[in-house]
Amino acid sequence: MIQKEAERIFETRELNVNMGPQHPATHGVLRLVLDIDGETIVKVTPYVGYLHRGIEKLGENLSYFQALPLTDRMDYVSAMSNNIGYCVAVEKLFGIDPPMRAKFIRTIVGEMSRIANHLLWLATHALDIGAMTVFLYCFREREWILDLFEMICGARLTVTYPRVGGVRNDVPQAFLDSLWKFTEEFPSRILEYETLIDQNRIWLQRTVGIGVISAEEAVNWGMTGPTLRGSGVPYDVRKHMPYDAYDQVEFDVPIGTAGDTYDRYRCRMLEMRQSNSIIRQCIEKLPPGPVMADDPKFVLPPKDKMLPITQPTDMAYFIIEKACKGCGMCLRACPAKAISGEKKKAHKIDQSQCLQCSTCFTTCKFKALTVVPGGKGLSDEKLAELAVAPDKLPDDIKEAQQNLTRQFDFIKKGPKVPEGEIYVATEVPKGELGFYFVSDGSGKPYRMRVRAPSFVHAGCLPRLCVGHLVADVIAAIGTIDIVLGECDR
Ligand code: SF4
Ligand code: SF4
Prior knowledge:
Blueprint: H1 2-9, E1 15-19, E2 31-37, E3 40-47, H2 55-60, H3 68-72, H4 79-94, H5 100-129, H6 132-153, E4 162-163, E5 166-167, H7 173-197, H8 201-207, H9 215-220, H10 225-229, H11 237-240, H12 261-285, E6 316-319, H13 329-333, E7 339-340, E8 348-349, H14 359-363, E9 369-372, H15 380-386, H16 395-413, E10 420-428, E11 431-439, E12 447-451, H17 453-459, H18 461-465, H19 470-480, H20 484-487
Antiparallel strand pairs: 1-2, 2-3, 4-5, 6-9, 7-8, 10-11, 11-12
The structure holds iron/sulfur cluster (2 copies).
């Protein structure tokens, strides 16, 4: 009787505990349902899907050009790499090749993105495990990279700098100078982080032998990137299927041996050194030339060859009274409400309100809307004297107007794309990012599917956690480096 009572009192049973979706160490809205026996993990069930992004479905309702900014929002920690992955895939589908300078620039910014990603990973992984100083050091260098991104495209996080066919604009010399300085200093900064944690007793106890996965198992689970390479598999898309300028530079693919959290940490540290070296080689080899492919069938026209040609422009937009049929198309299209008029009567533009966006110029089918170069600030009477029909305008303005119309069509409807399907992979900081498109020949993908490394790696969490302690779940989440924006596409 006493023994039965003792068994009842000291009886142990598994507990079911929720970790996340609002937990600082789950790196976003990841929910893990843990079955624990005391402190030991018996079962882990990951739940994703709290973000409701719908990026793949949105992509199927937008033209190939319009969907690009969505990719920034997948893995927002390395938006630049996502943009590159998307552009490389769409370029393969279109059958176009960006110029060499653009390829080198994309390789540079891709590797900067890898360093920025690994710095954020190291900062948060170390913080989760209990090391505060590394967090601050890593943010110091990451800020430098984000400032450089700002210098080339005005944005730090959601950049949309790479474009289908090349990059948005060339890089200034000041960017290259500052980046060169960064690459000179960065190796000593990596040494600083390593001095703090590489042989730290607590770090070693929290990472060595935790989340071990063999090479064979890692391959079977679909792991890629440093998460796979930590188990000793030297698979890297940059080496196996080179894109951009990766076939023009020398670099090693660091691998681990034990496949534990510590080896994956070492792989990422060595990768940052390799990225630093790739950036230096690209700066040294950066060829001159254009940064956008010259293929009017698939590439957006250059902004400096499109209306309004000059910024600020000295043009005036004007409606030729005799030619205007009063259809009201321009009135409805004008975003500034600068056009007025009654149906079937000639319309007028209020020059003081006109934003010179050119929308009306591309809308009028009756050749009643024209531009008057040098007409800004002139009276309507003077403009009426100077105005000529749009087909009598100088060639450069006619070409600029055609380019603007082409840009409208490209952005809204997309170009005519060859029919078929394609899967193209690139090596982003977290692993293999693949884009799969099914094209029905229209300007929008019939099907768009993204192979996101974070989604695959989140599925491996049960394999990495079972048998370890609750505290090790934090180390396991950190070691696979996931971002939930990429899981919930
Ligand atoms: S679209 Fe052309 S024809 Fe129609 S109201 Fe405007 S200027 Fe006149
Ligand atoms: S240029 Fe733009 S803002 Fe000006 S009248 Fe035309 S549509 Fe309106």
